[in-house]
Automatic annotation (TrEMBL):
Keyword check for Transcription: yes
Gene3D superfamilies for this protein: 3.30.450.40, Winged helix-like DNA-binding domain superfamily/Winged helix DNA-binding domain (1.10.10.10)
SUPFAM superfamilies: CheY-like, GAF domain-like
Protein species of origin: Arthrobacter vasquezii
Protein name: GAF and ANTAR domain-containing protein
Amino acid sequence: MGELVSFEPDEEFDAPGRLTAQTAGTGERSLLEELQDLVLSTTDMQEFLNELAVLSARSVSGHEETVLCGITLLRRRRAATVAYNSETAKSMDELQYAFKEGPCLTAAKEQRTIVVEDFASESRWPEYSEAVSGYGLRSILSAPFTIGAGAHAAMNLYSYRPSSFRSEEVAFAESYARQASKGLQLALRMAHYSEEADNRSRAMESRTHIDVAVGIVMAQNRCSQDEAFAILQRASNARNVKLRVIAAEIAQRVSGALPATHFDG
């Protein structure tokens, strides 16, 4: 999985079902171990994010109630819910993207924690709050992840109870987000490297197909390499199909012993 991520423990918190003064050492170690195991056991970014959403909801809510979790990622001027533990959480996040404003977008962009005590009386995002209230949700806690330049993210925790997130829950969520940020950074970095490798692989494959197709056209038309490439380009333009697709079709016909099309330019 590449370099190991070391999570540094933050301060202790006293909240039911969470880190307490009496169990801080054991609790912190347990949380850190879960995060490290998550990084080491998942094979790609999507799997990591899905598991992170489940772990986030469970860790912050304890065993008191069901908390819905969505993870918002802002990258290349686009917002998306990249992971969630329920379809409702995803829908609530996506409502914000439709309105182009809301607590999780603010938390991610401004890198600060946002708490809505009760959507029924929330005035900062009135349209979004009214829409969310229609689903029976009453409060939200959005804590930002720190993932570096070029991207922003936030953990969004929804509750059906008003004033569900007390100061202890907020403090724990902020600590949790700081610790989980390191794993998220690694997952995004791995996804970037994987995407680059896939792009290089596709480029090499396309180049191979084009080279093979140029050779075939040269043999068929008894022409030079430049002339054969020009013939392929004209065929690409005439059919409004990418050159690599034309080349792949020619290579497939020959390798599959299918009748080869004679390109006469």
